[in-house]
Amino acid sequence: MSKQIVILGAGYGGVLAALNVRKYFSQSEAKVTVVNQYPTHQIITELHRLAAGNVSEQAIALPLEKLFKGKDIDLKIAKVESFSVDNKEVKLSDNTTLTYDALVVALGSQTAYFGIPGLEENSMVLKSADDANKIFNHINEKIRKYAETKDEADAAILIGGGGLTGVELVGEIADEMPKLAKKYGINPEDVKLMLVEAGPKILPVLPDELIERAQTSLEARGVKFLTGLPVTKVNGNVIELKDGQKIKANTFVWTGGVQGNPLIGESGLEVNRGRATVNEYLQSTSHKDVFVAGDSAVFFGPNDRPYPPTAQIAWQMGELIGYNLYAYLENKAFESFKFVNSGTLASLGRKDAVAIIGGNSTPLKGLPASLMKEASNVRYLSHIKGLFSLAY
Ligand code: NAD
């Protein structure tokens, strides 16, 4: 009888699991259903560009129908309301319930607010194409308003969190600001573009030399860094920092961290800080018929520290799960997950970037790093046969 495989989420992990499992199972051997809340596969490593308005939505949000064409994958556009791994049931927002022989959980992560009062209600986030469009429209509107009101808060843009998301976003905004200022006839120097980081430095995953390069490059384009200063409270448009200073900004984007999707903690899967624990085959440690990919899983590296939740690890996990689903359902030998780290690439706007590349972390900066970032995107798109998005 045909096996039922259900994949929750069509981010990097879910899409790669779906595409890869089809290499091992024909349509008559297994039915593959992918559930996703949006009809697109979103290249979230490029969202900062959409938020700043220098790329079109079609370039980074690829229609799933197109990606799955001819692959015999059933696509369900709905939100997962809940799932129970003990009952082997998935409840969707369209009131349907799915059952499965094997389940893949690839539901990504959510923004973490760390219980900071007023933060969630008074900030925007950058987790989806919709979020990115919202940020873009919001900044446009505030700059347009500033031209009329000269209210300094309208020209104040604050990014909370100096990890890769915050820094890449601030770099794109810095690059686009001169054009936007011109559009509304304001002096670009009136715009206060700031980034606040709790830790002593931005981009702590990179070596000091590259951190300095990033900071200098962005400061030269008008970004002001406030480091060693956690956001402690937000009240309307007033953002309070640990030293007591209050920043009034009508644009505040929070990129201060991510946490597991709460559905995972509620599903009955064994979890570690909200992310599902998995064995070397990426199988849940508590439920053998469930595989977990990407930010939804926690996978411990050689030094017993969890790998950070990145696109490249999600991609590799999804691909391995594609095979291990087959191994599980057909009683074949499993393959173990071995993460191949190709490095970390941080864009600093359109013309600058910093990166560490390969297993020996070779540092790169400037044009070579920018080109690597582009190449990494093209490589991924080519892998999923999504190069059509580059036409936009
Ligand atoms: P992150 O957790 O890596 O960074 C969040 C930053 O916010 C940290 O530096 C933290 O110190 C700071 N912060 C936390 N609380 C704060 C507070 N109260 N006030 C001010 N600052 C505060 O989150 P991220 O940047 O969204 O990245 C999430 C994951 O995605 C990471 O694993 C990252 O490597 C990955 N990522 C990778 C890329 C890339 O490879 N180019 C891009 C984006 C994200």
From TrEMBL:
Alphabetized UniProt keyword annotations: FAD, Flavoprotein, Oxidoreductase
Pfam family, one: Pyr_redox_2
Residue span, FAD/NAD(P)-binding domain: 4-318
Cofactor dependency: FAD
Keyword Flavoprotein: yes
InterPro entries in alphabetical order: FAD/NAD-bd_sf, FAD/NAD-binding_dom, NADH-Q_oxidoreductase
Family: Belongs to the NADH dehydrogenase family.
Name of the featured protein: NADH dehydrogenase
UniProt organism field: Scopulibacillus daqui
